[in-house]
Amino acid sequence: NPLRTGLLVAALAVSMGLTLIMITVNEAFGERLDEIKAEVGSGITVRPAGSFGGGFIGRAPIGLNSGGGASEGNTLGDTLADEDIDEIWSIEHVAIVSRTLNVPYAGEGLESAIERPAGFTPRGAGAPEGAGVRSLPVLVTGTDDPNSLTTLGVQDAEIIAGRTFNDDEVEANVAVIGETLAAKNSMEVGDTFEMNDATFEVAGIFTSGTQFGDNSIFLPLSMAQHLFDREDEIDQAVVKADSVDNVDVVAEAIRETLGEDTVDVSTELSIFGAISASLSDARDSSRVGMVAAVVASAAVILFSVGLVARQRIKEIGIFKAIGASNWHVTAQFAIETVVVSVAAALIGALATFPLAQTVADGLVSDPAAPTGPGGFAGPGAQLRGAAEQLQGAGGFLGDVDVAVSPQVFLYALGIAIGLAVIASVVPAWYVGRVKPAEVLRYE
């Protein structure tokens, strides 16, 4: 019956096509998760317990009460010391340790590029009542890793003019400043400016893509410590493990060595878990869909073959009456089932090419990170920063490229043969029960 065969092929093609699509999408999600994990890297952030903003939040700005020098209360909050860094270096699987010192600066010589939003006063970093300061302080960061300019609101800044400082300039009066801050103070590469009674040369200008991040300055760490009278103080350390697999081991060792009540330790793998949650959920959904589609395919073919066997019971009786063995009749049904299954599988495989990407896009949603007024980084700024880094490497989580390879035809063939073998149980059972004499009695 051509109509019956056509309907069977169509039903199987839909269910098997969905199976192949889910297999392809699931593989793409797995590959993207591996890529994200590799991009996130092996970084571990170590801060004094209870601190926030890497030392920027919780400290009164330098120069707020006078033309220079540290204002009273500037040392509010705990810091890390060089001894802590030495202990971190002693931990197994630690490859790199970079240190930063963050200072909010509101003294003479620099004009902040960000006006303070109406009614907004950063906790611990704002002006005293009546001070009349209308702009947010400039974030000054001292770092011993000039090749990776990272601080609050800045993720791997891009140098757009000049250069960053080098290892020979650890105590030099050089600075790399944000694009917005440079424009506000009419500065270019090679110009000089005053900060806290010291003169600095602009070695380079960077952009971070955010207004808050571009209101920042990077200095060599030793120079920043000396300039702000914070010798042997570190606000944050970024530790790199020798491999992604050792990140959790190193993080736990840092907690045990320095004490959980002394430091807060966070890993980039925790960021990986946050930004990849939607992708992991989508992969789980694709697996459920794949299993459901396989079950549906098996149900369709079993029901169809069973129905066909019942309708052809007379034919089975005739075959057996003329000497055909049970095995011969069962093999005929099995071959017919394989042909139908393979035809449906090929149609389903062809449908995978135009539909797999659409299904993947529908399963994934992008994470969003909020921002505060005027580009001020909100609670999700660090999460957004990590996502922006990944964007440069291949797009947000929703941009999962599903490449359908010719291997999908092998999957299709394997599923078709597997279903046909399972379905052959039904005609074998019918053939074994059929007695030619009973079938032909009324003929």
List the helices and strands and how they pair.
Blueprint: H1 2-40, E1 43-48, H2 82-89, E2 94-105, E3 138-143, E4 158-162, E5 174-178, H3 179-184, E6 192-195, E7 198-207, E8 216-220, H4 221-227, E9 236-241, H5 247-258, E10 263-267, H6 268-275, H7 277-311, H8 313-321, H9 326-363, H10 381-394, H11 407-423, H12 425-433, H13 436-440
Parallel strand pairs: 3-8, 5-7
Antiparallel strand pairs: 1-9, 1-10, 2-3, 2-9, 4-7, 5-8, 6-7
List keywords for this structure.
single chain; 443 residues; alpha+beta; 2 domains; ten-stranded mixed β-sheet; 13 helices; elongated; ABC3 transporter permease protein domain-containing protein; cell membrane; transmembrane helix
State the separation between the terminal residues, measured CA to CA. 22 Å
Oligomer: single chain
What share of residues are in beta strands? 5-15%
Secondary-structure element series: HEHEEEEHEEEHEHEHHHHHHHH
Low-confidence stretches: 66-76, 123-132, 367-398
Total number of beta strands? 10
- Give the structural class: alpha+beta
The largest sheet, given as strand count, sense and whether it forms a barrel, is:
10 strands, mixed
Radius of gyration: 34 Å
Whole-number tally of structural domains: 2
Approximate helicity band: 40-55%
Mean pLDDT comes to 77
Q: In DSSP terms, counting alpha (H) and pi (I) runs of 4 or more, how many helices?
A: 13
User: What sort of overall outline do the alpha carbons produce when their principal axes are compared?
Assistant: elongated
Characterization of the model:
- Residues 66-76, 123-132 and 367-398 have low confidence and may be disordered.
- Strands 1, 2, 3, 4, 5, 6, 7, 8, 9 and 10 form a ten-stranded mixed β-sheet that branches.
- 47% of the residues lie in helices and 14% in strands.
- The protein folds into two domains: 2-36 and 277-440, no CATH class; 98-238, no CATH class.
- The chain starts with a helix and ends with a helix.
- It has 443 residues and is α+β, with helices and mostly antiparallel strands.
- The chain crosses the membrane at residues 288-309, 329-353, 408-431.
- This is ABC3 transporter permease protein domain-containing protein.
- It comes from marine sediment metagenome.
